Every structure is written in structure tokens, then in C-alpha cells.
Amino acid sequence: MTQKKFSILSASLTLSIAASSLLSLLSMNAHAARIEGVEFPEQLKVESKNLVLNGVGLRSATLFNVKVYAGALYVETKSKNEAEIIDSPQIKDVKMVFLRDVKKDQLNEAWEKGIHKACVKGCPQLEEPLAQLKAMMVSVKPKDTMEFTIFPAKVEVKVNDQKAGEISNANFSKMLLATWIGREPPTEELKAGLLGKK
Questions:
Q1: Residue 152 carries which DSSP code?
Q2: 166: enclosing H helix or E strand
Q3: CA–CA separation, 28 vs 19, rounded Å?
Q4: How far apart are alpha carbons 181 and 55 in whole angstroms?
Q5: Helix (H, G, I), strand (E, B) or coil at 79
Q6: What is the mean pLDDT of residues 114-142?
Q7: What contacts 153, CB < 8 A, 6 or more positions away?
Q8: Phi-psi region of 175 (alpha: psi -120 to 50; beta: other; left: phi over 0)
Q9: pLDDT tens per residue, range 32-56
Q10: In this model, does residue 76 exceed pLDDT 80?
Q11: CA–CA dist 151, 118 (Å, integer)
Q12: How many Å apart are CA 156 and CA 159, to the nearest integer?
């Protein structure tokens, strides 16, 4: 093979690889969900499990619809049925990206209301794990993140990608998820988004 032919072949191969990489990148971006300027990837790996994006939603508050955070729900198996997701023994993950300043006390008040509304049985036993969750909270600002990885018998909590702690309580795992997609969510708009109904 002549030097000229080799150079042409090499250039062609380089262009082919570059084009393939670009298409792959565009494909990944095409499958990412975007809400309020926040992008959530289509897939998420937790330990050895591959989770897929079930839906994204916006949490608004007050009569003025103040935008508080963008949220995403990841599951092993997609579903639009809240009871099916909450009761499933599969791993779930909820990501929150804040859009405004929220004080620690405001977050804790919201968790307390949410857990109490979601609870259907064994409610007194949830006070201790709720106190553990509240102790992990910090005041947040725009672009700060919180992540809740929900296992059958525990919840792992991250704040700005740093592990804040974990809560070992099977009933609390379910009730925490129910605060977003249960019978009394913060807003129906957020619930519908996380369930992939919007």
C-alpha cells in the first residue's frame, strides 16, 4: 500500500470514528429529559442495577407557582402506576435539582407534612427515621441537588453528590417515595410528571 493510499484510508477511518462518536453523543442527548433547564439522563446505574428514567416533574409552591425544584424518578421497570412502583421491591431513585433558595427548616417542614400525609399504617414508627432524614437536611440554593436511592429496606441520601447518610426502615422507604407519587403528593403536576403521564 502506498503512503498516499494509507493516508487517505487513515483519514477516512478517523472521520468514521468521529462521526460515530458524534451520533452516539447526539443519541444520548436526544434521550435525556429536560425540564426548566435541568437535564436528566435516560439511564442511571445503582450498584449493579441499570435504572431507567420513569418521568420528570416540576415542584411548584404557593399560589404564585414559585418553582422550587425539578425532579426525576428512576426505576428498574417503567410504570405509570404509583402503587406498583411504591410496592415494588426493585430499586428506585429520586433526584432533585433546586431552582431557588430553600432553608433547612422549610425542607424539614415539607418532609414532615409529606410523610404524615403519605402514612397509612405504622405511623408512630416513622418518627425516628423521619428525624434522621431531617438531621441530614441543609439549606440549599439554585443548582444544589439531593438524591434519594430507595431500596426495599433502606434509603440512601445524598446532598450535592455527597452521601449524607442512610435510613434503615422498610416502611419509611415506601412512605418516602409516596411523598412524591402517593395519594397526597406536593402537587398533582409533579406526580404526573414523575409517573411519565405528562
A1: S
A2: strand 162-168
A3: 14
A4: 11
A5: coil
A6: 95
A7: 168, 169, 170, 173
A8: alpha
A9: 899 999 999 999 999 999 999 999 9
A10: yes
A11: 18
A12: 10
